[in-house]
Description:
By secondary structure, the protein is of the alpha+beta class. The chain is built from 6 helices and 8 strands.
Amino acid sequence: MFLFLPFFSLCFICFFFCVSDPPLKGKGEGIKGCCYEPVPEGHWHKDITATVFWIGTDITQWSPKGIFRSAWDEHWIRNYGGEDSPKARAGLLPGTHAATLNPFYVALPFNDVAYPHIAKKWIPWYDSSLSPGKSQCKGHWVEIKNKWGKVVYAQWMDVGPYAADDYCYVFGSCKPKSKSGIDVSPAVKEYLGLGGMDKVSWRFIAEKEVPHGPWIKYLEEAILYSVIKRKESEEKNRSRK
């Protein structure tokens, strides 16, 4: 009896320290132990499988209602101006409407709004002065490189693929827990010449370091498009009178 109690206590202590973080509540996922602190913002995540998604993605088993909203934008498809279907394109842009948000966007598998305590510890650019409940990930810039070295810049606008708590991969040095580690928009896919499950490398980048390119022209084009359409509408109304 006297030998059993110390042995039991020792086992309990070992278990307690080995499992130092509790499971994420309500998500059924355990805290990873492959890394213990975030890597610098410019760290490259290499050899990551990229899949394609878009605003208004068709109904699938992973998006039973389609992607009409993002994790951080209740009216994503409306704010974008419509669906971003890869089947109706005008070059890198949607062919059915003017994009009023950046068509170069990605999804990564972490939601800072759902996991604020993890976000505070792991997001390299975390700003404690921002209002609680406001995403510090939404809109952050990502640099993506294909296997031939061609580079594109996109904004982080949604959560996925498949997971929302994979912070050890997104901000650390672990591999993604899912088969795919980044979802890219049709514009990103076309610019890099990606197929369905190609490998890419990516890293976070500060906005001031993003070079000029089609990824920062979207708003000007949308404004011009809106002005043209408004003038056409005004001319039609005059001709009817």
